[in-house]
């Protein structure tokens, strides 16, 4: 069983980035288990003074979930040509932990006009020693389509691309 942790960079209740990750859960092959991380809104602001021997409980939980995953699937919006603050806050908590380096990452972008977000995330994630699987990453024109997770999964084009992307990602994880 390959275990993936899905991380949305949006806190919106009806978020396209969260929805595409829910579609991934529906499309995952039987031998792939995808869990959606739901703790982003509750993470404390990153403070190196708190990142010692006893980090906050929610950070311990986050790091455990990262450590237990064979790979991460990230779908994140672009805010003001940057990474949303709450998502960057989570990444900052992962900079110095032992669980994150070499973690395989699949990047999904739900809006082609947000052309900066993938390079921005790549820069930060590579600096954090993640293994971004670039050939599996994909951009889907979902913005404005008002599709729910079922609608994305059932759409021949979007569902097909997500399925292929997940398959390439899992192959890359298991090839090492
Ligand atoms: C504060 C804010 C800033 C944004 N800045 C950008 C931007 O710089 N470039 C862009 O392409 N979209 C920008 N957007 C649009 C979002 O990236 C877009 O609506 C995205 O699909 C929202 O994702 P969600 O549905 O998962 O919340 C911005 C949206 C907000 C709320």
TrEMBL record:
UniProt-listed SUPFAM superfamilies: Flavoproteins (SSF52218)
A GO molecular-function annotation: oxidoreductase activity
GO cellular component, one term: cytosol
InterPro entries assigned: Flavoprotein-like_sf, FMN_Rdtase-like_dom, NAD(P)H-dep_reductase
Pfam families registered for this protein in UniProt: FMN_red
Domain of life, per lineage: Bacteria
Occurrences of domain NADPH-dependent FMN reductase-like (ranges): 2-140
PANTHER family reported in the protein's UniProt record: CHROMATE REDUCTASE, NAD(P)H-DEPENDENT FMN REDUCTASE LOT6
Protein name (record): NAD(P)H-dependent FMN reductase
Organism: Phyllobacterium myrsinacearum
């Amino acid at each position: 069983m390959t275990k993936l942790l899905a991380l949305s960079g949006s806190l919106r209740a009806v978020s396209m980035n969260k929805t595409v990750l829910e579609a991934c859960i529906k499309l995952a092959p039987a031998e792939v288990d995808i869990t959606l991380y739901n703790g982003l809104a509750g993470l404390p602001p990153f403070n190196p003074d708190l990142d010692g021997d006893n980090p906050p409980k929610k950070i311990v939980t986050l790091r455990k979930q990262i450590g237990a995953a064979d790979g991460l699937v990230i779908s994140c919006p672009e805010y003001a040509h940057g990474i949303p603050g709450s998502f960057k806050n989570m990444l900052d908590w992962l900079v110095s932990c032992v669980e994150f380096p070499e973690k395989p990452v699949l990047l999904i972008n739900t809006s082609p006009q947000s052309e900066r977000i993938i390079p921005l995330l790549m820069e930060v994630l590579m600096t954090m020693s993640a293994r971004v699987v670039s050939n599996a990453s994909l951009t889907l024109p979902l913005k404005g389509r008002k599709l729910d997770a079922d609608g994305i999964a059932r759409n021949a084009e979007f569902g097909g691309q997500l399925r292929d992307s997940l398959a390439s990602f899992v192959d890359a994880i298991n090839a090492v």
